[in-house]
Amino acid sequence: MADVVIIGAGVAGIQAALDLADHNIHVHLIEREPTIGGHMAQLDKTFPTNDCSMCILSPKMVEVARHPDITIHTCSEVESVSGEVGSFRVRVRKHPRYIIEEECNGCGDCTLICPVEVYNRFDAGIGVRKAIYKPHAQAVPDIVIKDQEHCIECGLCYDVCGKEAILHEDEDHERLIDIEAASIIVATGYGTFDARNKRQLRYLAVPDVITSLEFERMINASGPTGGELRRLSDGKPPRSVAFIQCVGSRDIAAGRPYCSGVCCMYAMKNAMLIREKNPEVDVTVFYNDIRAYGKGYEEYYERAENLGVRFIRGFPGEVFEGGDHLIMVAEDTETGEVETFHPDLVVLSIGLEPAPGSEEIGTMLGIPHDKAGFFDVADRKVGPVLTVKPGIYVAGTATAPRDIPDSVTMGGAAAMRAYLDALRVG
Ligand SMILES: Cc1cc2nc3c(=O)[nH]c(=O)nc-3n(C[C@H](O)[C@H](O)[C@H](O)COP(=O)(O)OP(=O)(O)OC[C@H]3O[C@@H](n4cnc5c(N)ncnc54)[C@H](O)[C@@H]3O)c2cc1C
User: Taking a C-beta distance cutoff of 8 angstroms, is the pair 328, 343 a contact?
Assistant: First the structure.
């Protein structure tokens, strides 16, 4: 049976891969990061059930790694595509990991001895990692990567590795792999709005203004603070937390006129998690409209209110520093009252945008974007995973902001279409 290529191994790509492989179709899962999992691996809990995100995702990641019909290509990107449905030729560029993948057993001894600490992208910037590292404890594949840009060649990792699995800079190179595939699924996911573009909110200018993704890492037990809520300025627990919604969503001036779909729900989730764990902390959500459209979502909103989360319809215009706390003034547009707030921690609910590199992927595959830059589908009503190119399908947030259940559903739908193509080729 012909193979299928899936670009992007977030939850949408993972679901598509498992569904295809379970039907004996061999899948090549192409992921540019050193681990599969995408954004879901960064989340603490997930709405609407507040289940632990990794408790759901990690078994799927392990299943992918163990499946005889899935080949994972991490640190890899598609370089070119030719051919047509039934006989695509996909050229993949594999970036060097500086590790002999078959030899590394993921023991992590090298990461402990490495003396270099750098910004940790997985922890969304609030933690550090080593120059030789595993992106996170449940990474798949469960092996390390050497970041050659920051490696100081001290030699400690080579000495400690009993398997001699670590390579020097000149011992590993980019490689090209050619794959024949009946069809291609694009599940490249999303990027997040750069909150520095809203200068008045003082992101990165004031340490206690953080993004929602940073917050997800902070309240995660395996995150940089061990799950403890902390101010980045002085490490103290905050007494009051403010969530500001629509940062880079429904904002024409910021070039993001669309709703990001998930921010109301994830802010409610995180507000509830604070109140459940620390009932003494005041939590306020500043919003425009609460969009709780899914099954059980309105009840979720009510639960947040019942837990004492305060919702104010109105946005603070600016965030100011005020000694040991922040100062914001906002009008409650439902009552007309103007109030001054003194939060210890401000969390910006950043919107979703097309993943970096989406434009290049679209040009390479010949599939168009919508105005926002997400991949356009052939028919939004009855063909939500079809593109204008036969044999090329799209799934998950690569097409628009959406939540995990919708992304998984699309992954399954795209897999079904790809399965039929593979069946036709035989
Ligand atoms: C702060 C925050 C909290 C959230 N909380 C929730 C929640 O509680 N519940 C919920 O349902 N949803 C939540 N979401 C939304 C959720 O993150 C998404 O619905 C889900 O992760 C989308 O999965 P995906 O596979 O479409 O995309 P992604 O998770 O973005 O995965 C895409 C993958 O493709 C890879 N990729 C991208 N481009 C390329 C390329 N060119 N080549 C190879 N690989 C590539 C990426 O590295 C990534 O691994 C939240 C979002 C945010 C920002």
Answer: yes
